[in-house]
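Tutorial handout. Part one gives the primary structure; part two gives the three-dimensional structure as tokens.
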Amino acid sequence: MATSLANRASSSNQTLNFLRYSFNLLRNFSTSSNSAPSSAQTPSATTTPSKKSKRRKKKNLFEVAQFLPNWGLGYHLAKSHWTSVSYEITKINLYKDGRHGKAWGIAYKDGLPVAAAKKISGVHKRCWKYLPGLKNLNQTLVDSPSLTTTEAAAQGEVQSA
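Part two.
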């Protein structure tokens, strides 16, 4: 019994050695046919794998808005290839998976509203980005009183006195 097991082990070792030698032989033939000689390669280049830069997958409107407070309502989003055009999100209807749905917003050009709230087209395309500066700009315009209202208040005080 022990001798038969030893014979099997030696025969399996022989087949593994044969396969190993045949693969090494094939590897030598495939590398020798290259135009660059093997001596030209540096040892550090062969030992370290080349690091390829990974492309980051761009995001659709819902994948960008999910990280904003209240799913981006009131925030400005734009397509990455647009210049000076954005949408302020006013309403979002999500499907169950959270990555698809419908969105409505107010179009802005150069920081000024262009049209009333309308359905945003192309929300599933992977080219959306968040514009952080525009939210603060519009919020400060709403929060701070304008000059016309302060002038009207001053005129009212002068008339009452």
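Part three, for discussion. Residues 145-158 have pLDDT under 50 and may be disordered. The two ends are 119 Å apart (CA to CA).
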